[in-house]
Structure prediction request, 63 residues.
Amino acid sequence: MQSRLKRAPAGIPRQSQDAIERSTRAHILETADAARAEQRRLSDAAIDSNASKWRYSAVPPKA
Prediction:
């Protein structure tokens, strides 16, 4: 006679603690990289690309 109890499907396999820590660390690194990229973008936007041509003359001053 067959059992009347139905077996539950295996479902989602559980991740090991190491895999969870690795994915958390990867997420933290990605977030830090994005923050650094944004900071670089803001810093680069503040640089005046025309400043050097006014600071240094191409022709030496006549004495």
Q: What stands out?
A: The chain has a mean pLDDT of 79. The longest helix spans residues 17-46. Helices lie at 17-46, 51-55.
